[in-house]
Amino acid sequence: MLEEIAGLRGLDDQAALLQEAEAELADLDGRLKEAQSGRARAEARCRELTSEVERVSAAGEALETLESLVRRSRNAPKRVSASAAVITRLLGSNY
User: What is the C-alpha to C-alpha distance for residues 68 and 75, in angstroms, rounded to an integer?
Assistant: First the structure.
């Protein structure tokens, strides 16, 4: 009889340990889900930032192209106005 009581107490102890382990497992599962959610948010933000970097990079390239065109247009000879003056002289003042 004493052996049966000791065996039952042992089972009670094991049941308590099992409940503690189950509670800890549930806690870890909740923390894992929170971490996975945080990771998903971080990955989405990373994609947003990557897209923004690409957009800014493309805008920078476009700006450099425009600046280059402006520099070339400022340094280009004034052919149009010179040509207009030559044509006016050749045709005379009738035009």
Answer: 11
- Give the tens place of pLDDT for each residue, 10-31: 788 899 999 999 999 999 999 9
Instruction: Mark out the alpha helices in the chain (DSSP H runs).
Output: 2-75, 79-91
What is the C-alpha separation between 25 and 13, in angstroms, rounded?
A: 18
Residue 37 to residue 40: CA distance in whole angstroms: 5
3-class SS of residue 94: coil
Q: pTM of the entire structure?
A: 0.55
Helix (H, G, I), strand (E, B) or coil at 76: coil
